[in-house]
Each structure stands twice: as C-alpha cells, then as structure tokens.
C-alpha cells in the first residue's frame, strides 16, 4: 500500500485467521532465532535476510517459514513505513555492498534505479510469464532484463459511502470526474474527499495519475535518464493542478490535507458525519470488513461502495495508479542461487492468493485472480475493478533517476493549498529540468 505503495498505507486492521496467528508466532520464533544464531542459521545452515515493508507483515513472516528449506533459513527485517525511507535504507546498505541484504521488498518505481546501479541480481526470464498482469510485469524489466519478481499488484479505486453519494445526487453507476466528486462532497455538510497529499511519494502518485488521466506525462522519454525531456508545462499538468487547487480550496478538503496519507484518510469514512469519498489502495476492503480486529458494523460495511478512479477531464478515461511490491535479490548476497529460489517461492501464485485473502494486497497474476478463494473473499465486480485498473493504469516514469524526479515534483507542488494551475506546472517544469541537468540542487 503504494503502497505509498505502492504504496505503504498505515498497517490496516486485518481480519484474524489461522495464517495470521501462525505468522505472529513465526515472528517471535524468527526474532529469537535471529538473536541466538545471527547470520549462521540453524545447525550451520545459511540464513537469508528478507527486508519487508510493513504491509502484510504477519503473512510475509509466515511465507519466510514456509519457504525456508533444509538448505537455508529465511529471516525477516522490517523496513520503515514510508516508501521513500524504505528506499534510503536499502540504498545505503546496497551502496555499502552489504552481503546480508539477500531479499528485499521494493516499490516498483525503485527497481530501475537499483538495477541501473548494479544493486540487483538478474532473475530468470520465466520470472515474468503470460500469466503476469502487464501493468506490474513492466515494473520489473530494465534494459530488456528482469531484476525483480512481482509479488502483488496494487492500484487505487474510488471508495465512498453509498448513502453519501445518494444524498449528494451523484450517480456512481457512471464514470465520475474529480470535479464532480469534489462538488458532490461539498454539497453535503461535513462530507470530505480523501487523498494522499503529504510531502511524500504517494502525493506524486496522485499528481501523476491525474496528468496521465488528462493525456499527458511527466517525462516524454524517461529511459534517457538525466537527458529525459520534462513535459510538466502542459495542459494535462494544468488540469491536474486545477484539481488539487479545487479540492484544497473546497469545504470537502480534509483538515489534515497537507499531511494526509493512506492511513489518515481512513478515519473520515466512518467517523462523525456523513462520511467521505476517498481514493486509496486495495487494502481498504479488508480494512473495513467487520471482524474481531475492528469494530465496524455490517451496516457500515454494506454502505461501502467502490468505483473506478475519477477522471481528470470529462470524456477521457482515467489512468489509475499502479503500484504494489516486487522482490529483488541483492547483488552482493553470498547465496545468490538460494536467494533466487526463495524469491520464486515467496511470489508463488498460491502465496499471492493468500496475501490477497488475508491482507487485501492483490495478486500480480491472472490465475491468482481466478482462484476460488478470491471469489469467496471479494465481490466479483470489485475483483474485476482491481484487475482492470492495474492493466489500464498510468505508471509513474520508469527512470533510474525516479527518486530525484519525485523529490523535485514534491518540492514544487506542496503544500496543496499553494498549487496554482497557472504557475505550478511551469515552475515544476523548470525546476525538474534544472535538477536533471545539474543546474539546481534538490
């Protein structure tokens, strides 16, 4: 969740289950064994260290136990919540040629950077097959080679209270625009529109999706690296800036807009008042599903609706964000064959199904979507919406310098209350171009 990725939402409230309880037990066992045995593993076996993002942590710990073999053990280490902070921690380890960074969960946008730097081992060609959703398959390729294994594919949809949409008179059976959503929420006292607009990666996810949805792009040729052509001074970027300005200056803006993230937006859905419209990742369904882990009622859950990501401009299909998690193998691991084998085990179709059912983190393969367990766990129209949104989504620029690109955009588009459709796209165009050319510091 990304989530940030893709995303990286605050850990959602999850329904209990056998696998979850098993994962918690595994976490304790792993922590104990790590403290006693370190990198040696049990009985002299090597231990592979797998760096995790927080989403689905308990399930991942169960995968670590499941995919350990007679030849090696897998232990987990937790990365920070923010995708940006995850990147920094991993980059520091890999730049220092850390031999114990064997496996790592990566936001897809950082795969090109890490592969280009020589920090990831190439994986077998059959890591990506015809079964892999194209929206996530493209994220693991760099210079015609595969450097990561798709684990789960994330996307955002528009979540909303059905009763709120009805009160606002908004027909959710038809595609809706951002302007229509903001106007509808503004017409109901206390209703809001939830987005991710803190100064972090998920804010760029929102901006990029709106630009792509208006027919534009941030970079014309991202593969050119620092020589890429910046395309932010465009009508599409001005449309995106218009939406940011429209929401920020409306009664529908949430009070914490400038620091909002995937987790903070959740509170508005069933808090005091009529509820919210919210763009957020796939984990939301499981987060709100009534269980022993939360106090949501069946009546509240039945009021939860979903629709395709809002359109930036009327008459043009939206480009939902594409995120998820890919697993990379560190280039300096002392056990490359074991690490590749472990990555294949962790990303199996069966494990993708388990992750979706338990944690709401959706599969990266078509066959996993067709699994009977998913049909029992999710409404069929929601599954179709998730799969379509990944395949028809708008990816962020695929560049070895993506972290620089994202940082430059954040610095000129934040806070949302100061975004101006007439000036922000041009200013961000000039600044990003200067940063890429080495004429300005980030």
From TrEMBL:
Signal peptide: 1-39
Keywords, in A-Z order: Signal, Sugar transport, Transport
Cross-referenced InterPro entries: Bact_solute-bd_prot1, SBP
Family: Belongs to the bacterial solute-binding protein 1 family.
Protein name listed in UniProt: Multiple sugar transport system substrate-binding protein
Organism name: Nocardioides marinisabuli
Lineage: Bacteria, Bacillati, Actinomycetota, Actinomycetes, Propionibacteriales
